[in-house]
């Protein structure tokens, strides 16, 4: 059985949601009936194939509802989803000012103050 810290500690490995759901004695069809979420979407959540979900806010809503249905921490399943689907943050390129040495910056400031530039 996957512990709740197992998913958060290793976001690269999907939690074994299907086994957890079966241990709780909940059928996927029952979750689909209660939540009104298509069976195919629930299967995609269980297998970590998030690209098969409809997109946008529907994804996070479906993931939350599925997590509640199997008594799995919503925050951990959403963290796994975000780690798998959100692009890594883009680093801004270094500006010219950041590349200059402190002496060069001082010379530029001095030239600006004197009106030379």
Question: What attributes does this structure have?
Answer:
single chain, 117 residues, mainly alpha, 434 Repressor (Amino-terminal Domain), 8 helices, 62% helix, rod-shaped, disordered N terminus
- Can you give the mean pLDDT? 84
- Beta strand count: 0
Broad structural category: mainly alpha
What percentage of the residues does DSSP assign to strands (E)?
A: under 5%
Question: Would you give an account of this structure?
Answer:
The protein has 117 residues and is mainly alpha-helical. It has one domain (4-85): lambda repressor-like DNA-binding domains (434 Repressor (Amino-terminal Domain)), CATH 1.10.260.40. The chain has helices at 4-9, 17-23, 28-35, 39-47, 57-69, 74-85, 96-99, 102-114. It is rod-shaped and about 80 Å long.
Summarize the structure.
This protein is an all-alpha fold. The protein has helices at 4-9, 17-23, 28-35, 39-47, 57-69, 74-85, 96-99, 102-114.
Helix/strand layout:
Layout: H1 4-9, H2 17-23, H3 28-35, H4 39-47, H5 57-69, H6 74-85, H7 96-99, H8 102-114
Helix pairs in contact: 5-6
């Amino acid at each position: 059985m996957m512990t709740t810290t197992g998913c958060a500690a290793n976001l690269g490995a999907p939690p074994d949601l299907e086994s957890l759901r079966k241990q709780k004695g909940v059928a996927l069809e029952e979750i689909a009936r209660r939540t009104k979420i298509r069976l195919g979407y629930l299967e995609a959540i269980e297998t970590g194939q998030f690209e098969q979900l409809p997109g946008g806010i529907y994804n996070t809503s479906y993931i939350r509802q599925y997590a509640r249905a199997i008594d799995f921490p919503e925050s951990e399943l959403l963290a796994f989803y975000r780690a798998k689907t959100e692009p890594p943050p883009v680093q801004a390129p270094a500006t010219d000012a950041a590349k200059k040495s402190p002496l060069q910056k001082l010379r530029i400031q001095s030239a600006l103050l004197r009106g030379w530039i």
